[in-house]
Amino acid sequence: MHRGVSFQKHLDRLQQRTWNLTLHRQQNTIASAERDSFAIPGHRFTQNGSINFDDAEKACQSKTTWDLLRSSLILNACSVETFAKHNYQILSWTRRLMGRSVFNAMMRPTVYKQFVGGDDFTSFQETVSRLQTAGVRPLVMVTLEEDVKDDGPDADELFDRNLKIMIDCMEMTASLGSQNPMMQIKPSGLFPLALCKSISTEVPFPSSQPEIVEKIANSIATSKEVKELGKLSTTEIGELNKALNRINQICEVAMKRKLMIMVDAEYTYLNPCLNLLTLAMMLHSNRSEPLVAYTYQNYLKETPNILLKDIELARTHGVTFGAKLVRGAYIYKERALAKENGYPDPVCETFEKTTENYNRSMDIMMEKVVEHPGKFCVTIASHNEDTVKRGTNKMAELGISGRSLDHKVFFAQLYGMSDFISMSLGQAGYMTYKSIPYGTIDEALPYLSRRLNENSSILGGVRREREIIGAALGRRLFSPSYLMKR
């Protein structure tokens, strides 16, 4: 309950602040008056797709020396496999030992500051403003991923509270004044997990069952209740209709505020339901521009094929289409579940196979972006330098400008990770986003712990980022020419 109260308290102050004016002034220093421009004074868009990720000073210029020291310390700690794997237990034990107040005082300027944008409008605004000076935009996310009981008598209160938090955050995101404002959402926070599993069982391949997608989309659009869906019980149908009503409210805000929604994918036993709901949201909301996008996890073998089928469904219904491409964060649990339940492992056998999948999905989407201007958008969400370079090279090959609003190709990384990639892309004129969590320390830590655990392979390979930070620190601390400028 604290979260909703805290969020609303700060939202009520929004109109009393000069936030919009401040960000509007900053936006005008970033974007030119031209409709398709995303330029930063002093930086030119690289038409040939060549990006220099080796310029440590340029990549780190928006960071203070303390920011770099903190990043270096934390990234080194994250490279320790034992910490990455058991970080939640370690942090929980430390909190019990120190007490919440002392623990929070220690965490706020360190781990929390590294990975979370803030817990009120003022702190979040500062984070966004700092990123915007480097040409990087916010992809706002609310940390709803909590271990809560969602099937008890108070479940509806929980889902309604989550809905309010999402909508409040959508309004906040739209008020930032950025072109193409974006927000990540988890629809699974709006209805019981058991319902998500049941729908996934009933509709395992949504794009192959267009009549069901149409039924769900019609319910979202008209508030007409779904009467039946496969073998769902009467109780489950009631829960589904409540969920669709909540989703309708999200879609209405997105369309009114011209806010792009990135719908998260999760585990394979939940994804068919999430895919179904997202496709239905597209039929409802993606009329003239792609406001709703689904997340495609390319560590799953069938992802490119599913992507093609989803695109075809959107085409036949005359709506626009958005996709966020990721490798995926649940590899270990997916493999464990497959082994435990005796079904084929859905995950690609090797990292190289995953990369092949990712590249295929990237090619599919970029070609659609070129063939149908304004009707497709793709977000290349990757911390892999080679993948990002391939993306910029593919854009150059296809003649896609990084500043074009008719050929929307975005790049995104998690806040606090691969900053040298994000800053270099932003400064080169590409439309680049940071996925920035919003929440208190207590709320954000479970989310961060899951990401640290699931992404240990990424965090174990931060040597490159440490080298960039080390070079920037060395110049600042030991270079006479740099010190003379100070």
Structure explained in plain terms:
The protein is α/β, with parallel strands linked by helices and 486 residues long. It contains 21 helices and eight strands. Helix 6 crosses helix 18. It is globular, with a radius of gyration of 22 Å. It starts with a helix and ends with a helix.
Q: Summed up, what is this model?
A:
This protein has about 475 residues and is of the alpha/beta class. It is built from 21 helices and eight strands.
**Low-confidence sequence ranges:** 1-45
The major sheet is characterized as: 8 strands, parallel, barrel
Question: pLDDT average, as an integer?
Answer: 85
Question: What share of residues are in beta strands?
Answer: 5-15%
What string gives the helices and strands in order? HHHHHHHEHEHHHEHEHEHHEHEHEHHHH
Distance between the termini: 47 Å
* Secondary structure: number of strands: 8
Biggest sheet, strands in spatial order? 1-2-3-4-5-6-7-8
Q: Cα-atom Rg, whole angstroms? A: 22 Å
**Helical residue percent?**
55-70%
Shape: globular
**Quaternary state, please?**
single chain
Q: Structural class of the helices, strands and pairings?
A: alpha/beta
Tally of DSSP helical segments: 21
